[in-house]
């Protein structure tokens, strides 16, 4: 990811969601609440209020940045075992995660999440500001496939960005910590 992409994506797009959300909730009962509480309230049982888009984008972007590293790592321990068990191994994960990102029509996200009901990992994609939270799942990793995530570096070549993200930017240590914190086994 180039410095220019990072500056625009983090410094402009992400910051705009933060600024807009703060303005939307100022003076409301949501002001000062944790982001997860704001998202749940703004999701409004599937009838999102205007604050949902900004709250969801702040969460998704915070999650995206925290799951990356300039030094690629590999899954280890319980997470690696779960990827083998639930997703058919790391190569199958890469293929299916790439497909989720490549086939997300328009703007959105590809996700690796833990389904607490089954204890299994799942790959999904969501549009716009949605995440696995709305499906009752615990997000572990996300890849931003909005054009602003890759267009300056890759133009219309989303699949090239996806391969770079998967092979060079995932911090599997962070993903493993999230998995353990979610009770993954």
How would you portray this structure in words?
By secondary structure, this protein is α+β, with helices and mostly antiparallel strands. It has two domains: 3-66, Helix Hairpins (Orthogonal Bundle); 77-181, Iron/manganese superoxide dismutase, C-terminal domain (minor pseudopilin epsh fold, 3-Layer(bab) Sandwich). It has helices at residues 3-25, 35-43, 50-66, 77-87, 90-103, 151-154, 158-169, 172-181, and strands spanning 108-115, 120-127, 138-144. Helix 4 (77-87) packs across helix 8 (172-181). The longest helix is centred in the N-terminal third of the chain and has 23 residues, at 3-25.
End-to-end CA span: 33 Å
CATH hierarchy, class of the largest domain: Alpha Beta
CATH architectural group of the largest domain: 3-Layer(bab) Sandwich
How many individual β-strands?
A: 3
| Average pLDDT rating | 87
Strand order of the largest sheet: 2-1-3
- Estimate nothing, just give the exact number of structural domains: 2
Q: Give the full name of the CATH homologous superfamily of the largest domain.
A: Iron/manganese superoxide dismutase, C-terminal domain
Largest sheet: 3 strands, antiparallel
- The amount of beta strand, in percent, is 5-15%
Proportion in helices? 40-55%
Radius of gyration: 16 Å
Total number of helices: 8
Structural class: alpha+beta
